[in-house]
Design goal:
Chain A has ten helices and seven strands. Chain A is an alpha/beta fold. Chain A has one domain: Thiamin diphosphate (ThDP)-binding fold, Pyr/PP domains (Rossmann fold, 3-Layer(aba) Sandwich), CATH 3.40.50. In chain A, strands 2-1-3-4-6-5-7 form a seven-stranded mixed beta sheet, sandwiched between helices. In chain A, helix 8 (about 185-205) links the parallel strand 5 (about 175-180) and strand 6. In chain A, helix 1 packs across helix 8. The longest helix of chain A has 19 residues, at about 185-205. The termini of chain A are far apart. Chain B is α/β, with parallel strands linked by helices. Chain B folds into two domains: about 1-245, Rossmann fold, CATH 3.40.50; about 255-395, Rossmann fold, CATH 3.40.50. In chain B, the strands form four sheets. A six-stranded mixed beta sheet of chain B has the order 9-11-10-13-14-15, sandwiched between helices. In chain B, helix 1 crosses helix 2 (about 35-45), helix 1 runs parallel beside helix 7 and helix 10 (about 275-285) crosses helix 13. The chains are: A alpha/beta, B alpha/beta. Chains A and B meet through helix 4 of A and helix 2 of B.
């Protein structure tokens, strides 16, 4: 019997071997990994252009070993449009939070999706402005306590959480729109598959691909990492159901 | 009246609360967010009346602010940096609407590269919008300036929106003892808003912000804003005098420190000017006659007060916490324009760019600036705008270049 050890698990090539700034229990790390695995899977590390946004994802350029442009708040899809149109053969993705994509960047995401830009958008929804310190975001759940809604989000005054995956699925330019979570091993596997498919949709020239990833924010929710992870399943998924809202990739 | 330790942000929120504002549209951005968090807490607890809504962007925020103000109510909002620039289109529109709202801007350096710490390129980008500008150097001043700003904005001769500016971090997150006046005292100074003609009533239809075609009408309306902004200087003086009588705190349009017998003067805006005070005291101990001039009102530009303060001085160093690439500091240009027709203008008005992106300015740098100013006067030559930057900082940049492009690569300078 051979005593040779076999490596079964390693850091994706597309991720740098550095410490991140993310808080304990934050799921950006997992989502970064899934995106990096997809890039490795298709062997496109040397061609891919990432577009980072404003918020906790701002330091993406420090963690991915690829070309990255850091976009102003909400503008990542417009920056990505410019990059993709002049480099149509390079895979382009944006990585944005809900304070970015679903608030100040709503105009950009809707029109970029509607033009059917050949890009992949990773949208991390944690129902709050993370880096700014836990204010109400458009995705904040009804009744959720934040630093700007100390008695909970009152939908009669502040409106309702925006369901981006559903909203974008109504646009003809969108080829793939899906919502996933990373709160359980099963969900992580499904999320990894969805992110791969969203890159494949772009690489095959089939259209705009959107992956909404539900994520925890223990720091701003005022919860332990485990309790925050629980909340994704107990409160977020019932309001933001997982699933493919559009799949026009013809598979 | 009570005294509390307040951050600049909390002081701004207190200003809005005491001004009994009717409406606050808001959007979070560092380092301003504490202002809207504080106000939303008070409104939700019902310790403050008024309505508040968190909107999708600063552009929508200022648009909603202008829209509400155009119906004749008292409106407050706050932003910072990129947010102010994202709202820039509406700054011009709202000023053109001649609605007297107050906006607090917490200064922060502009992207790119992205940063969180303060300089004045954000607020100076709003220089030509028609918003008046009041710049603060202490937390007390922030609270007081919000109240003064409403009086100024709502004055019947003015009717222009006002920005109250404070520096991110240095004031926004620094606690200082702040005297909070009672609501009764404030109401004596700032009575409830009288909207005059700005009133939407069913029996008196009116239109706001209509289109004008042709440069004549357009010129007329833009120039009206200019005349109102000019009139704001004497009106500001009256309001500040009244404020001083009531509250015992005095806020002239231009603050002068140890200037009367000074030969050399440092000119700065914002809270970094307080750093210069200590340096000036130490220079004075060594017999060097230095003073500090801090314009508090920046729009309208208090040219006459500055001429008075700087007349007959040997040399002036403007310390610009902003940079207009290809020109130098903005305050320097404005000051030169104000001094050109002054027969006893200082021989040298030098420009130093410091404090960009929150970079500190230390005593030794103030000493060095005064010494360079003295040399320049001796040589009779005004030096080119100069960036405050140390060898240590350059070494750090070079170290980063090495990391980014190891030996052999072109390190770009």
């Amino acid at each position: 019997m051979s005593t040779e050890m076999k490596k079964v698990f390693s850091r994706p090539d597309s991720l740098k071997d550095v410490q991140t700034h993310f808080c304990p229990g934050c799921q950006h790390g997992t989502i970064h990994r899934l995106v990096a695995e997809a890039i490795d899977h298709f062997g496109i590390k040397d061609q891919t252009i990432g577009v980072a946004s404003v918020g906790c994802s701002v330091f993406l350029y420090g963690y991915f070993d690829i070309d990255v442009i850091e976009a102003p708040h909400g503008r990542a899809p417009a920056v990505a449009t410019g990059a993709k149109r002049v480099h149509p053969n390079r895979p382009v993705f944006t990585y944005q939070g809900d304070g970015d994509l679903a608030a100040i960047g709503t105009s950009e995401i809707i029109h970029t999706a509607n033009r059917g830009e050949l890009m992949t958008v990773i949208f991390v929804n944690n129902t709050t402005y993370g880096m700014t310190g836990g204010q109400m975001a458009p995705t904040t759940l009804p009744g959720q306590i934040t630093s700007t809604t100390p008695y909970g989000r009152d939908v009669t005054k502040a409106g309702y959480p925006i369901k981006m995956a559903e909203l974008l699925s109504g646009l003809d330019g969108v080829a793939y729109s899906v919502r996933v979570a990373v709160d359980t091993p099963k969900h992580v596997l499904q999320a990894g598959k969805a992110i791969r498919k969203a890159f494949e949709t772009q690489l095959d020239g089939k259209g705009f691909a959107f992956v909404e990833v539900l994520s925890s924010c223990p720091t701003n929710w005022g919860m332990s990492p485990l309790a925050a992870n629980e909340r994704v399943g107990s409160e977020m998924i019932p309001y933001f159901p997982l699933g493919e809202y559009k799949d026009a990739t013809g598979e | 009246m009570k005294q509390q330790l307040l951050t600049g942000n909390k002081a701004a929120a207190w200003g809005a609360r005491l001004a009994a504002v009717d409406y606050i549209p808001a959007f979070p951005i560092t380092p301003q967010t504490e202002i809207i968090e504080t106000l939303s807490g008070w409104i939700e607890q019902q310790s403050m009346p008024g309505r508040m809504v968190i909107v999708d962007s600063e552009h929508s925020m200022l648009t909603a602010a202008g829209g509400a103000a155009a119906t004749g109510v008292r409106v407050f909002s706050a932003t910072s940096s990129q947010g102010l620039l994202y709202a820039m289109e509406m700054l011009y529109s709202v000023a053109g609407w001649r609605v007297p709202l107050v906006l607090v801007n917490v200064s922060r350096g502009l992207s790119a590269p992205i940063t969180l710490e303060p300089d004045h390129n954000d607020i100076l980008a709003a220089r030509d919008s028609g918003f008046l500008q009041l710049h603060c150097a202490s937390c007390q001043e922030v609270l007081d300036m919000v109240l003064i700003a409403y009086r100024l904005a709502e004055d019947h001769q003015i009717r222009l929106p006002v920005i109250v500016n404070l520096d991110g971090f240095y004031l926004s997150f620094t606690r200082e003892p702040v005297t909070i006046p009672t609501a009764e005292m404030v109401e004596h100074f700032l009575p409830p808003f009288d909207p005059l003609s700005i009133l939407f009533r069913a029996d008196q239809p009116q239109s706001q912000a209509v289109a004008v075609l042709g440069g004549g009408l357009y010129s007329y309306f833009r120039y009206q804003a200019h005349l109102a902004a000019q009139a704001a200087l004497p009106v500001y003086d009256q309001i500040a005098t009244h404020f001083g009588e009531l509250f015992g705190r005095h806020y002239p349009a231009v603050d002068c420190y140890r200037c009367d017998d000074a030969e050399w003067v440092l000119v700065m805006i914002g809270s970094f000017a307080t750093k210069a005070l200590g340096a000036v005291d130490r220079l004075r101990e060594q017999g060097c006659a230095v003073g500090v001039v801090r314009p508090r009102v920046v729009r309208p530009f208090p040219a006459e007060a500055l001429r008075r303060a700087l007349r007959g001085k040997k040399g002036v160093a403007v310390i610009d916490q902003n940079l207009s690439p290809g020109q130098g500091g903005v305050l320097h240009s404005e000051l030169l324009a104000a001094l050109y027709n002054e027969p006893q203008r200082p021989a040298v008005v030098a420009d130093f760019v410091g404090g960009l992106g929150g970079r500190d300015i230390c005593d030794e740098e103030f000493f060095a600036m005064v010494s360079m100013l003295q040399d320049a006067v001796k040589r009779g030559e005004t030096p080119a705008p100069r960036l405050m930057f140390t060898q240590h900082e350059l070494d750090e940049v070079n170290r980063l270049h090495q990391l980014a492009q190891p030996a052999g690569g072109d390190n770009g300078h």
